[in-house]
């Protein structure tokens, strides 16, 4: 099939590669403009641009898709379908109807659960045991289109947003190739989403990443995993901000919320609203990620010291 591909972050990369490897003609790649990144704020190319250049694919990096001249350019490609994977720019309704079969979105949840910007993080925060990929026919709403294909995977107890993201990215690549096979064979059946089951994966807010030690150890542990690799769950102890990158639940250890119960080689045990949390990998502001033992070798934390708690 003749394809326009729109994507920007690493999540989209396996899908672009899989479509090209499957023999589909990627007539154009759309990705967001280069932006400053890193400590030096140097302008860098994203992974999708790099892949397009490596494979010698036509590439555009518009700041918006609203320009009529761009619509004419997209129409001239005579694409069968546009594939969208975490592109990050709004597709106007006029663009959705340009390809013969419209625009298909690779969404990282089992819609209608977790429509929106942060489906992976919200699934972990909610304690979901399962998530997956939905291939959806895009319409004018936010992830409201008909479902064309879904495949689920389990959320493991130690999954972070990064590990789950990576598995969903590969699953999404397999799903979109499978979906296009069905589309070519005329075997697609669009199923409307059940509005009664809708939940929304709103964008993460900064205040969510500060730990509320009055929550259960399980809830806080999920937050640690959901905010890894970014922006990181954090708290303050002895006036020092500390990001927590890895933690384990210690349900049999009790302590007051935010209080350091014990300091062990394998971690710093902190009381929660229910149970306790063993902080295993931490990072102070401006420092490196360290194991608890490495951190404690240079910082004096004792039982009875307290982490501040977000209300």
What's this, in brief?
Helix content is 25%, strand content 28%. By secondary structure, it is of the alpha/beta class.
Outline the structure in words.
This protein has 311 residues and is α/β, with parallel strands linked by helices. The protein folds into two domains: 2-201, Formyl transferase, N-terminal domain (Rossmann fold, 3-Layer(aba) Sandwich), CATH 3.40.50; 206-296, Roll (Methionyl-tRNA Fmet Formyltransferase, Chain A, domain 2). It has helices at 13-21, 47-54, 68-76, 93-96, 119-125, 161-185, 217-226, 292-296, and strands at 2-7, 25-30, 35-37, 42-44, 59-60, 81-85, 103-107, 115-116, 130-137, 147-154, 200-201, 233-237, 240-250, 260-264, 267-271, 276-284, 290-291. It has a seven-stranded mixed β-sheet with strand order 5-2-1-6-7-9-10. Strands 12, 13, 14, 15, 16 and 17 form a six-stranded antiparallel β-sheet that branches. The protein has a two-stranded antiparallel sheet with strand order 3-4. Strand 12 (233-237) and strand 13 (240-250) form a beta hairpin. The model has no long low-confidence stretch (mean pLDDT 95).
* Whole-number total of structural domains: 2
Tell me about the largest β-sheet: 7 strands, mixed
Kindly report the spatial arrangement of strands forming the biggest sheet. 5-2-1-6-7-9-10
Indicate the CATH topology of the largest domain: Rossmann fold
Question: What is the straight-line distance between the termini?
Answer: 54 Å
CATH superfamily of the largest domain: Formyl transferase, N-terminal domain
What's the layout of helices and strands?
Blueprint lengths: L1 E6 L5 H9 L3 E6 L4 E3 L4 E3 L2 H8 L4 E2 L7 H9 L4 E5 L7 H4 L6 E5 L7 E2 L2 H7 L4 E8 L9 E8 L6 H25 L14 E2 L15 H10 L6 E5 L2 E11 L9 E5 L2 E5 L4 E9 L5 E2 H5 L15
């Amino acid at each position: 099939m003749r394809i326009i591909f729109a994507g920007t972050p690493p999540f989209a990369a396996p899908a672009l590669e899989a479509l090209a490897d499957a023999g589909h003609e990627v007539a154009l790649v759309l990705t967001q403009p280069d932006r400053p990144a890193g400590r030096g704020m140097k302008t860098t190319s994203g992974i999708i641009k790099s892949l397009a250049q490596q494979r010698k694919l036509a590439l555009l990096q518009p700041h918006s898709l609203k320009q009529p001249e761009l619509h004419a350019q997209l129409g001239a490609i005579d694409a069968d379908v546009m594939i969208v994977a975490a592109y990050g720019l709004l597709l106007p309704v006029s663009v959705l109807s340009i390809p013969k079969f419209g625009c298909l979105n690779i969404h990282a949840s089992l819609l209608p659960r977790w429509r929106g910007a942060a489906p992976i993080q919200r699934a972990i925060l909610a304690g979901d045991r399962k998530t997956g990929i939905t291939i959806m026919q895009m319409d004018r709403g936010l992830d409201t289109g008909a479902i064309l294909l879904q495949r689920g995977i389990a959320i493991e107890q130690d999954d972070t947003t990064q590990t789950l993201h990576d598995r969903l990215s590969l699953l999404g690549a397999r799903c979109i190739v499978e979906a296009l096979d069905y589309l070519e064979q005329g075997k697609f059946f669009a199923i409307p989403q059940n509005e009664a089951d809708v939940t929304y994966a709103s964008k993460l807010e900064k205040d969510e990443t500060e730990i509320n030690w009055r929550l259960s150890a399980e809830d806080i542990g999920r937050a640690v995993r959901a905010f890894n690799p970014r922006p990181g769950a954090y708290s303050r102890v002895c006036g020092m901000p500390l990001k927590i990158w890895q933690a384990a639940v210690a349900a049999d250890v009790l302590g007051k919320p935010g209080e350091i119960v014990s300091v062990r080689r394998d971690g710093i045990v902190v009381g929660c609203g229910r149970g306790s949390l063993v902080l295993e990998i931490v990072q102070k502001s401006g420092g490196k990620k360290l194991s608890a033992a490495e951190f404690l070798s240079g910082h004096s934390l004792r039982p009875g010291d307290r982490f501040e708690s977000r209300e």
